[in-house]
Records
---
Amino acid sequence: MTTSFQHRCIVEIGGIPIAVSTGDLGLFGLIERRYSGFLSDSRPELEIELQRVEQPVSSPDEDVRVYREVEEWVLHRGDFRARWSPLSGQGTVRQNLNPYAFDSVLRILHSLLLAERHGFLLHAASVICDGKACLFSGVSGAGKTTLARLAPQEATLLTDEISYVRRAVEVYSAYGTPFAGELAQPGENCAAPVSALFFLEQGPENLVEELPAPEAMRRLMRNILFFADDPGLVENVLNTACDLVSRVSACRLVFYPDAKVWDVVRQFQGLPAYV
C-alpha cells in the first residue's frame, strides 16, 4: 500500500479512529467537511487509502456485497469498491466524488469492527437526556426522525438514523455518529450509557409497554445493520443483542407526533415530566 499521499485526516467514531489518506484534494475536502465534528488526532487503528474514479465503478443500482477473500474483506457496491485487511489494518477504497459512498464504507467497516467488540449499528435515533441515552428504533417511516425533532431543547442528539451501540465493561453506551437521516444533521461527538430501548409505532396516543425478552430480541435483530455473511460474526452480534436486552429495558412506544411523548419517556424512566 502506498503511503506517500499529501492529504490525511483521522475520522474517529465510537472511539475507533480510522486514518484516511488521499492524493485527491477534492475527495479530501469532501471528507474534512462531512466529518468535521469527528476529526481526531488519536493514533489510528486502521489506515484507508482513498482513490478517486470519475465514473461509478459499476452499475449504480448494484446491491452491497461484503465477503472475505483469503485474509481480506471485500466491499462492493455500484459507487465504490473497497478492500480491507484485519491483519494489517490497511485498506483501499475506490469511489467517485460522492460523500454517500464513503459513508457506506464507514458503516460497513464499523459493523465488522463492532461485531468483535460487543457492539453493533442499529436503525435507531439516539438522544441524551439527563445524562442517559435513549434509543428509538424502527424501520423507515416508524418515526425516528420525528422523535429526534421533538426532543427537548436541552437534549443532545447523537443521531436520527444510525445508532452506534457498544459495551464498555458492564454498561452499554450510545455514541454520536455523522450518519444523518432526514434531519440532515450529524450527531454530537459524545456518548452516554443507554437507559432504555424503545421500538416505535405511531398511533393516536402515547403509550409505553415493556416487551418480553423474546419479542424484544426479534425486533432488535430485525433492525441491526450487518452486511457480511460470516457465521462467527453473526453469532457475536446475536450474543451482544441478547446481552443488551438482559441489561436494558426494552419497550414498545406507541406515540402521537407531539412533544408530550417525551413526558411519557421521562416518566417511564422515573423522571418528572417537563413542565
---
Amino acid sequence: MAMVAANLDDNAAAAARRATVAGLREKLARLGVLGGAASPEAAQRARDAVARAYAAPAFPQQHGFDAHQTAAGTAWVRRADVDLSPLLDNAGAATLGSADGLLGLAHPPAAGHVTGMPGGAVAVLDIESLGLRGSGVVAFLVGVGLQRGTTLEVHQVLLADPGAESALLCAVLDRLDGAALLVTYNGRSFDVPTLRSRCIVNRLGDRGLEGRPHCDLLGPVRRLFRDRLGACTLRQAEIDLLGMERVDDVPGFEAPARYRAWLRGAGPPDVLDGVVRHNELDLCATAVLGARLLAHVGGEMVGPVHAADRYRLALHLERGGEVGRSERLLRDTMAARGDPWDRRAAHRLAHRLRRAGGAGEEEALQLWRSLWHSDPADLRAARALAIALERRRRLDEAIAVCERTLRVCAAMPAWRHAAIRGAPSGGWHADWTRRLHRLRTRHALHPNSGAAPAQIRLSVAIA
C-alpha cells in the first residue's frame, strides 16, 4: 500500500506541474506572446487544460472486468467458466474432489463430513499480492474458483482503485459465503492470513474466512511426493503429477511490477492480461491437483510410479487408519527393491508386526535379522533384532548380535553415530555395552537359554 501511495503522490506532483505549465500558457496566450492575441477559443482550451490537470486521476480499466456493487462500494470482477475435463483426463482423474474427500486428504486422523454449508461446495482460492511479508501485503487480484461438476466457475476481483480495497474484500467474501471448504496451495500460511489481515485493517469481519474448513494441498503433496518432486512448488506439481505445461505464462514474481505499471498507465494496454491469466491457471491447477491426489490415495497412483511413492502412500494411509492397504503397500515397496525405500518399508512393517503380536512377531524378527545381515551398520535393525531375541530368550543369538555390533560401532566415526536415526540416550556405543553386559549376566544365570550363534540364518532377502 505504501508503494501505491507513493505512485499516487508521483501522479499528483505530475498533475501539479502540468497545471503550472497550462497556467503559464494561458497567461502568455492572453498577452499575445504565443503568436498573436489570444482568441476566446484558445483561452477556453487553456482553461480546459488547467481543469484536466487538476482533475482527480482516473483509474485504469481492465478488459473483461465489470463493475459489481458491494456493501463497501464498487468492485471490478471478471467471470469465466472453465471446463476442466481435458486437464482431468490428462491427469488421470475422473472428476473434481468433493469437500469430504479433500478434507480427509488434508487431515486423515480427523476426516469427517463437512456440515453447515449448503451443497458442500468447494471454493479454490488464490491471490496475487504486492509484497511477500508483513502487514503491508496487499492483494491486488483475488481469484475464487467454485467447483461445479467438472467446471470451475472463476471469479477474479481486481483492485482497480487502491482506495477501494474494502469493496474488493467484500466481493471476495460474498463469493466464499456458500463454500463448505477452501482449497489452496500454500494458502494456510499466505493467502488466507493475507486476506484476513486486510479485513482487519479495513474493519471488516472475515465472515468465517479463518475458521472455515481448509484444505491446503501443499501438506499432502509434501507427504506423498516430496521424494519425487524435490521442490514442492505448484509449478513442479503441475509438471510431474498432472502433465500440465503452461505456454507463455507470466512468472508470479513479475505480477507486482506489472500491476504497478498498469496502475500508472506506464505499460502497454495488455500489461496485466498475463497476470490475470496466471491467476486463472493457478486456480485450475489447484482444483485438478486436488482431484489427482484423491485418485492417488484411492489407488490410481501417479505413473510412472516413483520408488518412494508406495512407501509414502503407505504412511499416509496408516495415519488415516487404513492398516490393511498400508501393509500391502509396504510389502510392495520391499518387493520393488528400490533403495532406500525397501529398507524403510521393512523397518516400518517389522515394528507393526511386532506390535500386532502372535505369528507376526516371528516375521518381524526375520525382517530385522535380514536387514542386519544385509547391512551390519544398520544399528536400528541390530537393536530391534537384539531386543526381539532377548524377549524370546534366545540369549546366545542376542549376544552374537551385540558383540558384532559393538565392533561395528567402534569402527564408525563419531559423526556417524549421531547421524543414525533413533539413537538411544547416552549414544549407541554405551547402549550396546550395557546391553551386552546384561545379556551375559542373564546367560550366566541361565546357560541353557537360546541357540548357538552358528544357528543364525538369513531368512528374508532385503536389497
---
Amino acid sequence: MTALPTASIAEALNRDCVCQTLDTERLQQQWQADPALSSVNESILSQRPNLFSATSVFISQAQYQQMQALVSAVEQVVNLPAYRQTVLDDAPAIARQANPTRGVFLGYDFHLSPEGVRLIEINTNAGGALLNTFLARAQTACCQDMAWASAANLQLANLEKTFFEMFSQEWQRQRGAQPLRQIAIIDDEPNNQYLCPEFQLFQQLFQSFGMQAVVIDARELTWRDGKLWADERPIDLVYNRLTDFYLEDSAHQALKMAYEANAVVLTPHPQAHALYANKHNLVRLSDAQFLAQLGINEAIQQTLINTIPTTEIVNPAKADDLWARRKQLFFKPANGYGSKATYRGDKMTRRVWEEILQGDYVAQQLVPPSARRLQADGIEAELKVDIRAYAYAGEIQLLAARLYTGQTTNFRTSGGGFAPVFLMPN
C-alpha cells in the first residue's frame, strides 16, 4: 500500500489499496452455523458468484455525516403536513389511505463526488441489508494499521436485533399491544429473485425472535373471512419486497384487499413509496422555491439543495432544451426501480428520447460515480461505486457499497457486487 495523503485518507485507500478483505471461510461459517441456512451458502456460491466483492470501500467521517444529515432532512420534510398533502394529492388513491407506519428499509443511494456526497435516489424496499450484515462481519483488516476500521461499520453486533425492533415498531404503530405472531415475506416468484437468499435470512431472523414466518409468492396469498392467508396461516404482518408499489397488478388483489381493509400490516406500503421513492419527489426536494414555500428552515434547505442534484420533470414542452443539455443529465422513470429504463443522456439515441417524452420521466443532473481500484488474479480494474444507506425513522442503520461496471449498478461484474463500507478519519 502506498503512502496516504492526510487530506483524504478514504479517497487514497479507494485509489491505492488493492487488498482483498473478505474472509470467505468466515462468511461461510456464518451460514453454516445454522443448518437452516446451508442452502443460502450453496446458492450464493453456485448461482451468484458476483453477489459479494472481495474488497471494501472507504468513506470519510465527513461523508458519512453528510449522508446522515440528508437522511434526517428528508425525514423532517416528509413529516410536514404540507409536503404530504402536496405529494399525496398526486398519488394513487391507495397511497392516500391513512397509515401510521413508516416503512422498513428505506434505501438512500449516493454517489461520492469531489464536492461531497450526492443523493441519486431513494428506494422503499431496498434489498441487501441482512446480506450486507453478514458480509461486513466477514472482513479482515488488510494490514495492522487498518485493524481498527473493521469495527467501524456502525453497530454490526446488534443489527439483527435492530432490524427486528424496526418491524416491531411498525406493528406497534398500527396494532398497539396486540401480539404479533405470523409474518409473510413476499415477492413475485421469490425463489427466482436474485436476492432470494436474503428471504431465507429474514425468515430465520423472525423465527429467532419467536415469530412464525413464511416466504411466499405474493400471488399465492388469499383473502377470505376478513383475513389475509398464506396457505392455511392467517398473516399479521407482511414484509413487502414487491415492485408493484401501488398493488395495481390483478395478481396482487388479495394483498390489496387486505391492506385496504386494514386487515394486515404491510411494510413498506404504497404511501411510503409515494412520499419517499417516487422520483418526482427529487424534483421537489431539490427546488429551493418549493422548500421555502413549505417553511423549511435555511439549514435543512441547504442540506437538501447541496446534496440532491437538481432534478426536473421531463416535459415535452421543454424537449428541445432538455435534448440540448442531455449530456449533463441522467433520465429516470418516476416510478422506476433497479435502474430499469434509465439512461445517461450522453449515450441516448433519438429513438429512446422519443420514448422518454411519451413516458413519466425525470431528468437529474449527472453525477458520475467514484471509482474503486481492484487488483486480483493478475487483473487490474477500476469499478464504479455507489453507497447505499439503509435507514429507518431518519437514522442510518447500515452502509453498504455496490461495485460495478456499465451504466448502472448490477451483479454481473467480475470482482464487483456488494462491498462493506468502512469509515475513515476526515
